[in-house]
Design goal:
Largest sheet: 8 strands, mixed
Shape: globular
Oligomer: single chain
Radius of gyration: 24 Å
Number of helices: 13
Strand content: 15-25%
Order of helices and strands: EHHEEHEEHEHEEEEHEHHEEEHHHHH
Amino acid sequence: MTRRLAALLAADVVGYSRLMEADEAATLAALKRARAELLDPKIAEHHGRIVKTTGDGVLAEFSSAVEAVLCATEVQREMTLRNAGVASPGRFEFRIGVNLGDVIAEGDDVYGDGVNIAARLEQAAPPGGVVVSEDVYRQVRGKVPAPFESMGQLALKNLSRPVGAYLALAGDAQAATPWLPPPDKPSLAVLPFDNMTGDTEQEHLVDGMVEEIIAALSRVKSFFVIARNSTFTYKGKAVRVDQVGRELGVRYVVEGSVRMAGNRIRLTAQLIEAESGRHVWAGSFEGTLDDIFALQDRITEQVVGALHPSIRLAETAARADDGDPLVLTILATAQMLVRSLEEATSQLARALAIDPNLAWGWNRSGWLHVYRGEPEIATRHFERAIRRVRSIR
């Protein structure tokens, strides 16, 4: 292992999970084109090297902070040109963070705070934007053809100290709107749902459902819920959830749509973490219009009932130490309660990989496989739990 000073560029695709959900093949093809035609060549042109790729993410190392920022701003300007005339749902945008720091090099990989800060700065960048650390800004000011705007001291996730940051206004990135400080308790905004019924006269029905959901969520004392008058200002507008989070000061955004076929109505809703764009929960609910008010009440109860534990769970996960097998098992148990079985499977697999002797983990895994309809696997995992309890005695 060796140490060296390096400029690190972290990039990822805005809304990648949403794009993949909409069209996996087209999104993957667009990502490959963007990398082959733009990102990878620009990194090479500015004497950088790609350290690793993770799905839609790229980490690159440069020996010069100036070259790293030139690369980042040129990529964003070119992406702006590529996106000209492309409708919002089909736009393919990057967020980029650049940091200068001491790294530990082992083989072709690099580790350390310098890498972590670059990744967190990337998450703080708006679509089409480049956020650089204060150390990078001091090295590049006056040397790159891009204006910079101070973002102040950012409290970045999982970092104990704030980091001074600047936004390079490259491409079509706008000045960063500072996050309104969210309250201590879970906070959310319910956006107007899309009316997909094909009948504008049903608009009042769709809005009525959203109003009922907002009112029901407001009665949950542990939630901070934005009022209808504020969220309905976004009605009919194409907005990003991170923009809503910034402007309203909330951690979560609920959005959805309503469809009708004959006498049947279907409501689809999803809960999104505003800052990261991560989907926390999604569900659909349907019924008949024979008694519209009873149907509205039932759908509201189901949506609120699903959102409540999904937000308890997300808050716990955000605070948790994801390297503790006991914490991972607790999170998996909570996910099982809200029927997020794939997430629970992943958490338990990580917990048992860290501590294969965790009896409670094997017990929870047994119940998980019962829920998944896999009795043979469940039996084996229950037996492992029993053997470990007996060995302790």
